Amino acid sequence: MTRFLLTRLFHGLTVLWVVVTLTFVLMRVTPGGPFDRERRLPPEVLANIAAKYHLDEPWLKQYARYLNGIFRGDLGPSYKYLDRGVSDIVAETFPVSALLGIFALVFALAFSFPVGICAAYYHSSWTDRWCLLIATLGISLPHFILGALLIWLFSIQLGWLQAGRWEGFTSVVLPTVTLGAAPAAYLSYLLRSTLLETLAEDFIRTARAKGLRESAVLLKHALNNSLIPTLTVLGPLFAALITGSFVVEYIFAIPGMGRFFITAVTDRDYPLIMGVTLVYTVILVCANLLVDLFYSLVDPRIKSY
Amino acid sequence: MKKPREWIKGLLREPSASWGLAFILVVCLGGILAPLISPYGPGGLDEQRILESPGWSHWMGTDGLGRDLFTRILYGARVSITVGIGTAFIALVIGTVYGLISGYIGGTLDHLLMRIVDICYGLPDLLIFILLSLVFGRNIAGVLIALGLVTWVRFARITRGQVLQAKELIYVEGARAIGGSHTRIIVRHILPNIMAPLLVTLTFSIPAAILAESTLSFIGLGINDPYSEWGTSWGTLAQDGWRAMRTYPHIILFPGLAIFLTILAFNFLGNGLRDILDPKGK
To answer: Cα–chain-centroid distance for residue B145?
Structure first.
């Protein structure tokens, strides 16, 4: 098992290195630059800027400088925000994105467990169709359309909830639902189909035969044995929620990391783009590592990997 | 795999899949025949009739510059459908060739190639897509290349897995035994065998690409090519409506519906195809 986890750790580190190198190269070959203005700056000014950000050095040296900085937790200076570095911006905005992701995940779980269990228990061809339909609707509805719809209904028409910023309960509900709706539909569908498989097993019939209450059969015997597939998707799902939240942050004007990523791309603030991409990748890698760890604990066959 | 006629029949028996297929055909025809359907051009400004609500002369109303929204959506279908189908095919070609090489040759090369695929799976694909589209340009071609480059890994993995299975089939072994060339074995025996899962993946890649492109255009990082004769992306149209949503909700309603229904139609079609061609993939 240790060997398996070490392999996976090495794999995660390779992914990180690839992302650092890829973003570095992409940002260097992208046409246009952060200091292009409508009116061209005088060459002396450009030379000074280049010297300040070490852009006059050879690529390899810049790359080494960047890697060295990462090891010390320094993601470099931002081209746009002169008063703080990329690390400061990430430290400031990441907790907001993480919180939004956690809220959305909790919402998805709170929705999908009752719905998934009911759909499996009252199984019929009619509920089958509806579940598949709702799951398909969930993955087909883009964040920005659902977000706009919710804002129009609950904020503009009814005036119940706040549609912008990130302060207090009324402003948190709509972004949470927008981000969590698709995973809620997907998790319900997944839970229902695994529960259906488990409910057809022999030990369920045994449990019923020995006279257990239906609720005990369903919630203890069946649910416990259906949790593994659901739990294993939670890692990647959480990572996807955080990395996919930039659209939601954009719509609801939430000061999270994704919003800064969008403005960084428009501003061509290369160090900020690279830094945020790196942090997103770290989350993704960690989530996958957690899943591997979970798998190796649950499934002893992994040992022989 | 069943005969094409049989599975098309099966597909049409499934209501959601046939509705999906019909809607996709309508959208494609709308995009192709846009100049014939609409009396207004995609850039036809009309200062007299700005921000009109849906009515008889403008079915979906007009935008802030007096352009007919229905016409803009028809032309926008060209962008979405091209991006969706184009990306899926680019990814299919790259991924299938890669997976075939990896699975068919096997050994150390297979191990190495699959390591690369594993790494690509660990990347945050939407962000990499944004960065790639900066490099390749924010037009249709750039978006196609960028999206194709992040989507191909899925095809590579599926193809390779299928090829590994197909290689063991008795008649493939037989073809090898009687001295069939590698090209012949791949084209005649292996490819037809792995078509079904690839077709299902292809169908599901199209809505994913449409979703990615319209999302990026919505936040202002997607296609930005105002002088193209292709029409404006639905995501950009929705962005126009987003800014005026409080007072003129119809401007975001129709592009939003177009995006949602088209993605839904492809997903319905994908579900139907999967049930018929690849029941295990469920």
So the answer is: 13
